[in-house]
Amino acid sequence: MTPLTNNSFNVLFLIARPAAGKSEIIDFLKRTPEADRFRRFHIGPFDELDDFPMIWAWFEEDAILAKMGHPRLHTDEQGYFLHNDLWHVLIERLDLEYHKLLRDHPNYHACRTAIIEFARGKEHGGFAQAFQHFSEDTLRRGAILYIKVSWEESLRKNRRRFNPERPDSILEHGLPDEKLERLYKETDWEVFSAQDPEFITIKGIPVPYVVFENEDDVTTARGPELGQRLEETLNRLWKIASKHHA
Question: 18-30: per-residue pLDDT in tens?
Answer without folding.
Answer: 989 999 999 999 9
